[in-house]
Amino acid sequence: MIKTDVVIIGGGPCGLAAACGVEKSGAKCVILERDERLGGILNQCIHNGFGLHVFNEELTGPEYAHRWIDKVNECKNVKYYLNSFVYMIECTPNGYLVSAYNDEDLIEVEAKAVILALGCREKPAGSVQLLGTRPSGIFTAGCAQKLINIEGKSVGKRVVILGSGDIGLIMARRLTCEGATVLGIYEIMPQSGGLARNITQCVKDFNIPLNLSTTVTRVEGDKRLTGVYVAPVDQKLQPVAELEKFIPCDTLLLSVGLLPEIEIANDFQLEFNPTTNSYCVDEYFQTSKTGLFCAGNVLHVNDLVDNVSREGQHAGECAGLYALGKLPTAEKVEITFDDHIKYTAPKYIYKTGAGEVQVSFRVNKNYRRTIIRAISGGVEISRRPAPVVTAGEMQTVTIDKSKIQEDLHFEIQVLE
Amino acid sequence: MEKFEVAIIGAGIVGASLFSELTRKGVKTVLLEKADDVSNGSTKANSGIVHAGYDPVPGTLKAKFNIRGSQMYPSMCSRLKVDILQCGTLVVANESGREDLNKLFERGIKNGVQGMRIVEREELHKMEPNLADNIDIALFAPTGAVISPYLVCIALCEEGVVNGGTVKLNFDVDNIKPINNEYIISAGDQSVMADFVVNCAGVGANDVNKLAGAPEYPMKYVKGEYLLLDKSQNGFVHRPIFPLPTKAGKGILATLTLHHNIMLGPTAIPCEPYDTKVDAEGISQIKEKIVQSVKQPNYKKIIKLFAGVRVVSGEDFIIEKLPDTRFYYTIGICSPGLTAAPAIAEYLVEKMIQDGLQTRNHEFVSREPYINTETMDKKQLKALIKQDARFGKIVCRCEKITEGEIIQALNSPLKPTTVDGIKRRVRPTMGRCQGGFCLPKLLKIMSSNMECPEEEITLNGQGSEILANGESK
Hints:
Chain A is of the alpha/beta class. Helices cover about 20% and strands about 35% of the residues of chain A. Chain A has 3 domains: about 1-120 and about 255-325, FAD/NAD(P)-binding domain (3-Layer(bba) Sandwich), CATH 3.50.50; about 125-255, FAD/NAD(P)-binding domain (3-Layer(bba) Sandwich); about 330-415, Sandwich (Immunoglobulin-like), CATH 2.60.40.
């Protein structure tokens, strides 16, 4: 059995940054990565746009991952195991026992703290209740991305994309560059869930039709996909049957949302947030069970990997301090928010007095000319005008902790 | 031309049961299947329940074979080394349904169902905390059970093969020619000879009867649509929960799979043969009806929609012989056909013996079960990995399936060649990501094991290739 201070489950962007955070705290950690290399999904994201916030330059996914892998390799107290699949987390008198296996052996790691850094998965066809037959040629966008970018395969020639999440937008461009014809992107909501820059650079610049308030109603084909039916939706998001039309195609990509990969910790019955489909955390990224931390896309699906790294690093530092018995605790304040905001991460902060805390949140739809305000004890403690806030983009507000009274409330004033 | 004593047409649960029954009696048997894998029709898409037998009208073949089949299943599953969950079944009702439940109970007694009892509200809601509030009483039948219908069918076929039987896939029978006392059964340019022919072709049974000059029967094709929920919903129900049956059938139920998924359905919608499309109407019907029995399920956890077609012909099963021949046919084997199948097989073999079929002493060979690393303890898993490193390489993270398990399925007696074939044997792509993560890995493993390019690998047979030709730039 291996003994360490912190076990990090997952060696993607969150796990790598978390390891650097643990190192900074002075504690030791072990990363357990199920894939054959570190970096996670970044390895298949060969497009650029990563690292603008963390490194002040624009990198591709693999480049961004390697910046962090290099940092991890410089750490003195970080060990990692590749091809190692974690299948169980148990509690022990000393903390946690994490069990994994690889092609050589079982690996058991005992630690004071665990960081869940497992990322997220794509929703499959069933989760959007895709109707019709079940032919081949239906892929989640990320699966197609892996087949094309890592395996060098081709997934199809005439492609329809359902959903306009970032991976869907990126893959619209990628498939076009690969010589496939992207017949259209269909988004059930009145706005895209993707980043503005992706809508411009991946869709508009390539003249790919982005059809909002429109969805794929059913698919056809007994063996391979032969086509899909699409229809505009009404205000209740129900398809208008009379306007349904058939689009012949051989491939359907799904970019219909991501779900945090939380299931490994199901048995702990942690406080859960149905909005994020994940656990609630405090400002240390600690779940309702002490010593069990959760950050990055397994906590809430981020828009930018830079945010994931920032969260991971902070979670790592806090988990390290926890393992060393140095993590300060104080009275807990639950963050509240108005109707424009869907949730905040963290949910709780501590009245430890000094320092800053970053609070991230998403809004429920797109707004123009807004002011993001934080209020505590009836006093405005933070105010930021935001000309545009979109549902696809994460908002982050830094709060001076010394100003926090008994409560902390976020609101968005919409001027237009 | 290869010569057999018995040729069975159709490798669904009925054909597979018969195949296993005959091969274990030393009869030289061939199982002919038009698809590229066994268990490819109604058998792969149904509720997976061994019915206790209170539903069928006493005196019918349905009643007779249901009871006998449900008695056979536990020992058959242990012989096949496949799982069976002997959880019992519940038919639930509110107070106004008490009389109907009592009738069902009486009918069960007449049919010979053992151990049934009426459960009252307090106990019932303890047994199943997620029943709808208005449910007051239930008929509990402890002999009801849950199985994996396709795995049982696959196991029966594998057992037949290891006991000397032959399975011919992609054998779409287009001619049945009687010559003297034998039959020549052909599919394109392939033919086999047999003394006896049994039509177990399910949805295609009329077509096969026609080829043999046997009568065609009025058939109704009925589609059953289902919603499958992620295994995180494990515990929503602990056994199949049926509403009171109606003329249309057993109704829409909430049940569980052997792998802890929750399954809701089926609808009963008249359809064309082989139409397994899932429609909006069906989904709303399931959602509307299911809450009459159980609390609102968490639809955010749906991972798959699917549908199967069953064939109904009149009120009862049709199990007959074309007079003065050795051609037998089974028609309209709808519910409780899965339960009844082993009993139907037993009955058919008796009939054939009466018609001169020779059985002989045969040294039984047990089928090898699939290794399942998920059910192993640490010591067993460690030992297995030391013995074969491929059992330490994870492929499907959702269902925890390793490369070793997939290779074992690829090398199993029927040598499945499709992604669906592997899925039904050892479950990769069956979990909550539905293959989003493991599909690329699975294609690689299949391609290297089958020694063919990944581009040739199909979901479920020719025409359903997963990749397109041409490399990416």
